[in-house]
Amino acid sequence: MKLNKLFKSAGLVGSLALGSALSAVAPTAMADQEYLLTVTRPNQLHVIDMSTNKIARTCDIPGPFGSGAMAVSKDGTHAYVLGNNWEDIYGFDIRNCEMTFSAVQSTPTIQVKSFQSVAVSADGKELYTVQNPIKKHRDRFEVMEPRLAVFNIEDGLNAKPVRTFPVDRRITKIAATEKGEVILGGADVKAINPQNGETRVVTKLANWEKGPLWLPPDAFAMHSQGEQANEYIMPYITAKFDSEEWNFETAEWWWGMSRVDLATGEAERMETIPFEFIIFNFITDPRDSNILYGSFNTLSKHDISENKTLAVYEMPHTYYNLNISGDGKTIYVGGTSSDISIHDSDTLEKIGSIQLTGDMTTSDLRVATIRD
């Protein structure tokens, strides 16, 4: 009897000691997982593990290729892709390729196109797109007023808009702010409240007031890969003339941008660097807001605090867009063809590549971060 009590007591003490020892070991912290997302023809969403630069999975998108524009939920788990010739939107859980959302926007009598515009609210509950509808008559097409359409993501498959509001024409890429507005990239950069349709001007572009010596800017509203810096960039080209005669040969040509902080909805507009070569898209280094990278026929690095280009790397072919890792060390350059070129952000030297199954053409290159 005493022996039994002794053994039980010893076992209890041993268990307590073991438990104390285990509890003293700090749990291993899991790193955030980053995935690079893009779409290729004929119509696949690729989920690329950025820790290995390997394709983790490929999701089939219904219907024909759209534009490849997409938005990623704030928690990084879902991507919403514009497909079917710019008409439909499909949402996928990137962890398993389950399709969790769809919105077929056209009807037999109304055809709807969404040009690059797709965004998800900061809380992940709503999806936004700008619809450009036309009405089909027997003998003609009737161009209708464009509108911001708001969908409840929890409505799942075959979702319908729960609210619509009239917006300007020429709106392409959009983004949602943490304050609840939607940034609209058009002739000017505006913001709309998706609850009541109220709008405000964020940055004047086509209607700016820089005086008679400045050329109204030509903005490029195709891609916006600003998730690593939580921003929206609208790049533009302008010129400063030496007289009101507007001599284009002697003008100073500049790249500029409207950059919107998606945390606050506030923006800055500035001329950044001299216009020396074509750049389709800019991204900001998440470690330094003065450092920008651009892509097209070259990969370039710029310091906008000094208005100068720091480095240029000649690319083997055209790449429409680019993105960057969360630590700012690695740049991914894609779009156009079937390869993603990987570069060191300090030197711009190529350090790898990812071969895909088809051309990306106009597809976005987005980063989804799933936090532990």
Chart the SSEs and their pairings.
Elements: H1 2-24, E1 33-40, E2 44-49, E3 54-60, E4 70-72, E5 78-83, E6 88-93, E7 98-104, E8 110-113, E9 119-120, E10 126-136, E11 141-143, E12 147-152, E13 163-166, E14 174-176, E15 182-185, E16 189-192, E17 199-203, E18 218-219, E19 231-240, E20 252-261, E21 267-274, E22 281-285, E23 288-295, E24 298-303, E25 308-314, E26 321-324, E27 330-334, E28 339-344, E29 350-355, E30 366-370
Antiparallel strand pairs: 1-2, 1-30, 2-3, 4-5, 5-6, 6-7, 8-10, 9-10, 10-11, 10-12, 12-13, 14-15, 15-16, 16-17, 18-19, 19-20, 20-21, 22-23, 23-24, 24-25, 26-27, 27-28, 28-29
InterPro entries: Host-pathogen_enzymatic-act (IPR051200), QH-AmDH_bsu (IPR023879), Quino_amine_DH_bsu (IPR011044), WD40/YVTN_repeat-like_dom_sf (IPR015943)
Signal peptide: 1-31
Protein name: Quinohemoprotein amine dehydrogenase, beta subunit
Shape: globular
C-alpha Rg (nearest Å): 25 Å
Assign the CATH architecture: 7 Propeller
Alpha-beta content class? mainly beta
The beta-strand count equals 30
Distance between the termini: 51 Å
- Tell me about the biggest sheet? 6 strands, antiparallel
CATH superfamily: YVTN repeat-like/Quinoprotein amine dehydrogenase
Q: What is the domain total for the residues?
A: 1
Task: Quote the CATH topology.
Answer: Methylamine Dehydrogenase, Chain H
Q: Which runs of at least 5 residues are low in confidence (pLDDT < 50)?
A: 1-29
> What is the share of helical residues?
under 10%
Could you report the average pLDDT, rounded to the nearest whole number?
A: 92
